[in-house]
From TrEMBL:
<dbReference type="GO" id="GO:0034145">
    <property type="term" value="P:positive regulation of toll-like receptor 4 signaling pathway"/>
</dbReference>
<keyword id="KW-0677">Repeat</keyword>
<dbReference type="GO" id="GO:0071223">
    <property type="term" value="P:cellular response to lipoteichoic acid"/>
</dbReference>
<dbReference type="GO" id="GO:0032481">
    <property type="term" value="P:positive regulation of type I interferon production"/>
</dbReference>
<keyword id="KW-0472">Membrane</keyword>
<dbReference type="GO" id="GO:0045121">
    <property type="term" value="C:membrane raft"/>
</dbReference>
<keyword id="KW-0325">Glycoprotein</keyword>
<feature type="disulfide bond">
    <location>
        <begin position="239"/>
        <end position="269"/>
    </location>
</feature>
<feature type="disulfide bond">
    <location>
        <begin position="25"/>
        <end position="36"/>
    </location>
</feature>
<dbReference type="GO" id="GO:0005794">
    <property type="term" value="C:Golgi apparatus"/>
</dbReference>
<keyword id="KW-0433">Leucine-rich repeat</keyword>
<feature type="disulfide bond">
    <location>
        <begin position="34"/>
        <end position="51"/>
    </location>
</feature>
<dbReference type="GO" id="GO:0046696">
    <property type="term" value="C:lipopolysaccharide receptor complex"/>
</dbReference>
<dbReference type="GO" id="GO:0045087">
    <property type="term" value="P:innate immune response"/>
</dbReference>
<dbReference type="GO" id="GO:0140104">
    <property type="term" value="F:molecular carrier activity"/>
</dbReference>
<keyword id="KW-0399">Innate immunity</keyword>
<dbReference type="GO" id="GO:0032760">
    <property type="term" value="P:positive regulation of tumor necrosis factor production"/>
</dbReference>
Length: 372
């Protein structure tokens, strides 16, 4: 008897359908998005069969330990290669489960036959050691890999071990709420195609952690570096981390950090020559910080605590300067920033905060046409 789960994820075994159990999976009318949430004490995993026709699939395991499916990890995915190739999947999200590393690798091997482009892991605990790496990558050729609140038993080696199973060509890497960002740089490949690195929502990272993450000469074509809410404190330390890693981003986002305008022990630092856009919004700045790049295309200082307009000598040569949501322009800006819920006015900062919260959803909607 063919093991249908091997055709899907190697972790969704075909079980008997129970009419008394509500369907844990829902497929939209356009057969585009399929969402599964297996929270029932005795989940009907076979409900995921309807996801085979979807383009975007989200599967959450209800916090379960998936060790019971380890037997499926030994299945030869080549037997199902043609079926997997026929799937329309382009985006896949897996979350809310404890997954043995062997099972995770089996999933990646199976997805290597798919046309998947974007893979997201969130709220996962990966248990046990990763198996020995293959002679060549057998996993999917991803353009985007996103991880949020994923823990690994292998410590700082996890990223290098994971990437060994993915075909080269990754362009976007997002890592949030990481349990370990102390990467083993010697084990990391050079990200020859990576143009976007997002380390937002890692408040414990800080500048020292950033230096450890930005392994020298590993990001030769990086253009976008996003460090929102990542424990950054001074521009000089961020600049030093970029210099140490020989990173030349075009756009740098340091918003939603508690930045200091000056650092007592700051040393002069030369910013990357390619840097053209710097986002310092929502940073709690009471004055324009020292040590800005000498020339920028875009500088965003919105939604800070500036009580007066910046003087020309405080600013770099800049084409597009944003100052909205500061007290000198909006006397009620501080109240809006500190307590949006109690504010009777939807300020520019309130709108910006809401926009950031739904930016991921908007990006998905904008990209849906590419997968139709």
């Amino acid at each position: 008897m063919v093991c249908v789960p091997c055709l899907l994820l190697l972790l969704l075994p075909l079980l008997r359908v129970s009419a008394a159990t509500p369907e844990p999976c829902e497929l939209d009318e356009e057969d585009f998005l399929c969402v599964c949430n297996f929270t029932d004490p005795k989940p009907d995993w076979s409900s995921a069969m309807q996801c085979m026709v979807a383009v975007e699939v989200e599967i959450r395991g209800g916090g379960r330990n998936l060790e019971q499916f380890l037997e499926s990890a030994d299945a030869d995915s080549k037997r199902y290669a043609d079926t997997i190739k026929a799937l329309r999947w382009r985006r896949l999200t897996l979350g809310a489960a404890r997954v043995p590393a062997l099972l995770l690798v089996a999933l990646l091997r199976a997805l290597g036959y798919s046309r998947l482009k974007e893979l997201t892991f969130e709220d996962l605990e990966v248990t046990g050691p990763m198996p020995p790496p293959p002679l060549e990558a057998t996993g999917p050729a991803l353009s985007t890999l996103s991880l949020r609140n994923v823990s690994w038993a292998t410590g700082g080696a996890w990223l290098g071990e994971l990437l060994q199973w993915l075909k080269p060509g990754l362009r976007v890497l997002n890592i949030a709420q990481a349990h370990s960002l102390a990467f083993a740089c010697a084990q990391l490949p050079t990200f020859q195609a990576l143009t976007s690195l997002d380390l937002s929502d890692n408040p414990g990272l800080g500048e020292r952690g950033l230096i450890a993450v930005l392994c020298p000469h590993k990001f030769p074509v990086l253009q976008d570096l996003v460090l929102r809410n990542a424990g950054m404190e001074t521009l000089s330390s961020v600049c030093a981390a970029l210099a140490a890693a020989s990173v030349q981003p075009h756009r740098l986002d340091l918003s939603h950090n508690s930045l200091r305008a000056t650092a007592p022990d700051a040393t002069s630092c030369v910013w990357p020559s390619a840097l053209s856009s710097l986002n310092l919004s929502f940073a709690g700045l009471e004055q324009v910080p020292k040590g800005l790049p000498p020339k920028l295309g875009v500088l965003d200082l919105s939604c800070n605590r500036l009580s007066r307009a910046p003087r020309p000598d405080e600013l770099p040569e800049v084409n597009n300067l944003t100052l909205d949501g500061n007290p000198f322009l909006d006397p009620g800006a501080l109240e809006h920033q500190e307590d949006l819920k109690n504010s009777g006015v939807v300020s520019v900062c309130a709108r910006s905060a809401l926009t950031m919260g739904v930016s991921g959803a908007l990006a998905l909607l904008q990209g849906a046409g590419d997968f139709a």
